[in-house]
């Protein structure tokens, strides 16, 4: 009898076929006119320059599990996809291409360069979208958006103008993160901090009118050229008499005041610090408090400007060398000590960023933040796990105004025009032809573009057609939840909260689920330098998408990082194969079976059938509850255990006698239960493993109720007979079978050898249960003669085990040769003892411990633990056999 499924599951043959089928049938498309309850989620838009990495894979797998589940639960689901224009990243990509052609953006001019970027986007951008499709992401691709498309650009302009008109957007000359290579301001998120070994230079500043020096410590001695004060703590008695006096700034020969400020740490260095308000964020605040002069010593490329005196024209790090040499020559370099410093770098070009005074555009965020704080405090939006609420509040209560301007060309150009006649600014929804202040026509548009996060902050409503009052907005906003990483909780999530409340009057999402990082098996962050990066596409090619997705879900515990290894993915490929093989068995035994019209309530069910149906009902409830609570790992664990252990290992074996037997009615009932459990199980697993479940489901007998499993109800067990008492009886019988199997294994009884078993029961009820399950015990435990009851005669030589209120006794006479078994065990124990000695010696060798890589040490420790566990089991078996002689 041939199965409808091939012998082995080949993901490559299946995945592309079904994805094309799903999209062709329009199964991902959301209908805003549907009467169904809405469920909506917006994708965290990946950069248009991006490629799929593990963070994307985890994030989008969890989203897809939710949306597939909700569709099957009867919701009208919108999963809104799209990409971010990624201003700096995209400009860098295209600039590198131009450099390879011996050209530049300046050679092309602004309009020519923008045209070139759009050309790149059409030809090469958005690669990650195709990679998400390989992951099985069931987004509504008909609605795909791009942050620079016409509709979203209109939304950006509407928001900017409105905020400006309300006084919430302004310009100011302040300190910002500046990239001297990209020539633009950067957000905090765009600055990556790397701990680097550096120096702390201790410099002597002469106190004017005395022979004393104030010693200041700095990691950036070149910035002293812009010092405008030295600060000490007001309560520091060492310097109390110097407050109000001056020091002579070395090399610049400029007197600067000695001031007192609580910011100073008396324990750091000498307790005196140099203040450079134009080149340090903390100094900037001190400078404002004390009305100090702000002296900018660099140009936009990090080269010393005219304010740097004789160092003018030197690149900043060359200036550092020159300044230190001159200080040392003047006897003003007291000492140098090694110092670990967190150096900020541009996230794209890795240039060290410079705190830089610059005229920029800002959003006054406090009025917006207050409502976003209140929304989480009152539960309008939940953050899950709740521990992230504290982080959210810490940032929001200490929020600073948001620098939204960037000095690049690719992005939303700020809709502000400067009048050459009156120097006033006109901000407008349409390009103006005249100054709104004096009526002059000589206008010049701002060259800056908006921070990418500005447009992505509007994502939940701009993607649905705002500022138009669309039916999509009416149906799907606010969205149901957002799934994202903790690293953008502040920079994206909080800003979406602020903008959603401001422009829609409602929170943008009801729930925010924060997932953890994907790390390697040892818990280390994946990085190319460490060589521990796992490429999702390589894994998908080797093991299939379903195995990869299920692995991610199985390890996605709330609040714990996902520790991923290729071995774990290979393990879940075995799970996919287990399901496949069980389904092949089922299909081979469902030939001629017609599921239509079968009512299990009317069938006379065997005990094992009542048990598996009760367990199916339980696991449906467990999976639903876990998914409702965003406990993806618990849902995956429950489905894994039910599929592998209860359905495949137990129920299929328990059903074979009836499936292969001569009783036609029994066979038909066994087929009905087998079909029902498998069909419902495929639905339960579909959100996690969409491809293999669709392939198997389509091969089941009978007429398909829907075109695809993803359009079928998630699980419908309401009509199944429930028999919890019968299920408990079956569990006891299974415990007895496991007990007999354990003894057989420990005693090395040949698998095919049929044996005698004695079951000593504690009461008549237990005896009755086991008597009813005698057939299962005989069949699955390979028992020939079975005695069961209370106070049964106990054999003189027997191996024993306890299963609940049943003592299992297996007479060993004639079953095994006790002497030979003792010899075998002693030989095995000696062999394992050698392994233990070898690994113990290895792991106590200090030289080995200091040189061996962490993964090698971990493997050897695991091998030692395994050997010790094996030795313990063997010694127990030896003692048991010895006691029988």
UniProtKB/TrEMBL annotation:
A motif ('KMSKS' region) lies at residues 525-529. It is found in: Cytoplasm. The lineage of its organism: Bacteria, Pseudomonadati, Thermodesulfobacteriota, Desulfuromonadia, Desulfuromonadales. GO terms for molecular function: aminoacyl-tRNA deacylase activity; ATP binding; valine-tRNA ligase activity. This is Valine--tRNA ligase. The gene is valS. It comes from Syntrophotalea acetylenica. One of its GO terms (cellular component) is cytosol. It catalyses: tRNA(Val) + L-valine + ATP = L-valyl-tRNA(Val) + AMP + diphosphate. It comes from the Bacteria. Signal peptide: none annotated.
């Amino acid at each position: 009898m041939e199965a409808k499924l091939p012998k082995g599951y080949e993901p490559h043959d299946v995945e592309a076929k079904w994805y094309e089928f799903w999209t062709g049938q329009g199964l991902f498309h959301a209908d805003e006119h549907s009467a169904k309850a809405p469920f909506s989620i917006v994708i965290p838009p990946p950069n248009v320059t991006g490629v799929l990495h593990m963070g994307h894979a985890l994030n989008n797998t969890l989203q897809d599990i939710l949306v597939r589940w909700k569709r099957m639960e009867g919701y009208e689901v919108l999963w809104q996809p799209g990409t971010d224009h990624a201003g700096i990243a995209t400009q860098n990509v295209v600039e590198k291409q131009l450099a390879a052609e011996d050209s530049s953006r300046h050679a092309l001019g602004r309009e020519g360069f923008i045209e070139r970027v759009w050309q790149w986007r059409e030809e090469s951008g958005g690669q990650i979208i195709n990679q998400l499709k390989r992951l099985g992401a069931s987004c509504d691709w008909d609605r795909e958006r791009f942050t620079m498309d016409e509709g979203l650009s209109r939304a950006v302009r509407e928001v900017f103008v409105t905020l400006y008109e309300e006084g919430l957007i302004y310009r100011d000359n302040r300190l910002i993160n500046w990239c001297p290579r990209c020539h633009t301001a950067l957000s905090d998120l765009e600055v990556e901090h790397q701990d680097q070994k550096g120096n702390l230079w201790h410099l002597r500043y002469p106190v004017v009118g005395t022979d004393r020096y104030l010693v200041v410590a700095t990691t950036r001695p070149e910035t002293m050229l812009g010092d405008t004060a030295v600060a000490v703590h007001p309560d520091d008695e060492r310097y109390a008499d110097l407050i109000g006096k001056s020091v002579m700034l070395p090399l610049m020969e400029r007197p600067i005041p000695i001031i007192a400020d609580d910011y100073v740490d008396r324990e750091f260095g000498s307790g005196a610090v140099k203040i450079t308000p134009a080149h340090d964020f903390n100094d900037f605040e001190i400078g404002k408090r004390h009305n100090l002069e702000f002296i900018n010593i660099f140009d936009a490329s990090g080269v010393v400007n005219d304010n740097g005196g004789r160092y003018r024209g030197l690149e900043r790090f060359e200036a550092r060398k020159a300044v230190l040499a001159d200080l040392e020559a003047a006897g003003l370099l007291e000492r140098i000590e090694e110092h670990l410093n967190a150096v900020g770098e541009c996230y794209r070009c890795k240039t060290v960023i410079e705190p830089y005074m610059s005229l920029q555009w800002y959003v006054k965020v406090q009025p917006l933040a207050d409502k976003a704080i209140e929304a989480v405090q009152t539960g309008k939006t939940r953050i899950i796990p709740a521990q992230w609420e504290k982080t959210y509040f810490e940032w929001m209560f200490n929020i600073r105004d948001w620098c939204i301007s960037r000095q690049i060309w690719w992005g939303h150009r700020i809709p502000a025009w400067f009048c050459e006649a009156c120097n006033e600014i006109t901000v407008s929804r349409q390009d103006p032809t005249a100054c709104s202040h004096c009526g002059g026509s000589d206008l010049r548009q701002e060259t800056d573009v908006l921070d990418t996060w500005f447009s992505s902050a509007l994502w939940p409503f701009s993607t649905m057609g705002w500022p138009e009052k669309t039916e999509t907005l009416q149906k799907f906003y606010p969205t149901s939840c957002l799934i994202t990483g903790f690293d953008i909780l502040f920079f994206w999530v909080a800003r979406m909260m602020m903008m959603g409340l401001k422009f829609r009057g409602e929170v943008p999402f009801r729930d925010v689920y924060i997932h953890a990082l994907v790390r390697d098996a040892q818990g280390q962050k994946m990085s190319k330098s460490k060589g521990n990066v796992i490429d999702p596409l390589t894994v998908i090619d080797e093991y299939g998408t379903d195995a990869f997705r299920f692995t991610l879900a199985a390890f996605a515990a709330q609040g714990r990082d996902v520790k991923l290894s290729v071995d774990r993915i290979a393990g879940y490929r075995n799970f996919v194969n287990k399901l496949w093989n069980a389904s092949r068995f089922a299909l081979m035994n469902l030939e001629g079976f017609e599921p239509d019209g079968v009512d299990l309530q009317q069938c006379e069910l065997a005990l094992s059938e009542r048990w598996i149906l009760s367990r199916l009902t339980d696991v449906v409830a467990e999976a639903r509850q876990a998914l409702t609570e965003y406990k993806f790992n618990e849902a995956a664990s429950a489905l894994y255990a039910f599929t592998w252990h209860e359905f495949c290992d137990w129920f299929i074996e328990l059903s074979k006698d009836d499936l292969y037997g001569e009783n036609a009615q029994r066979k038909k009932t066994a087929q009905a239960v087998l079909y029902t459990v498998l069909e419902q199980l495929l639905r339960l697993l579909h959100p996690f493993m969409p491809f293999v479940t669709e392939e198997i489901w389509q091969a089941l007998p009978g007429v398909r109720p829907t075109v695809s499993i993803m359009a079928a109800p998630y699980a419908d067990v309401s009509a199944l007979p429930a028999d919890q008492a019968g299920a408990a009886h079956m569990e006891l019988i299974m415990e007895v079978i496991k007990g007999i199997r354990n003894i057989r294994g420990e005693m090395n009884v040949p698998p095919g050898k049929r044996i005698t078993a004695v079951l000593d029961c504690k009461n008549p009820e237990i005896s009755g249960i086991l008597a009813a399950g005698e057939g299962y015990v005989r069949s699955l435990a390979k028992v020939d003669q079975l005695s069961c009851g209370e106070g049964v005669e106990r054999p003189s030589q027997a191996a024993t085990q306890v299963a609940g209120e049943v003592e299992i006794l297996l007479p060993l006479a004639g079953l095994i040769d006790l002497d030979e078994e003792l010899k075998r065990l002693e030989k095995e124990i000696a062999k394992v003892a050698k392994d233990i000695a070898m690994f113990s010696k290895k792991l106590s060798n200090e030289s080995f411990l200091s040189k061996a890589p962490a993964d090698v040490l971990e493997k050897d420790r695991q091998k030692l633990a395994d050997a010790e566990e094996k030795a313990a089991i063997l010694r127990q078996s030896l003692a048991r056999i010895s006691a029988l002689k």
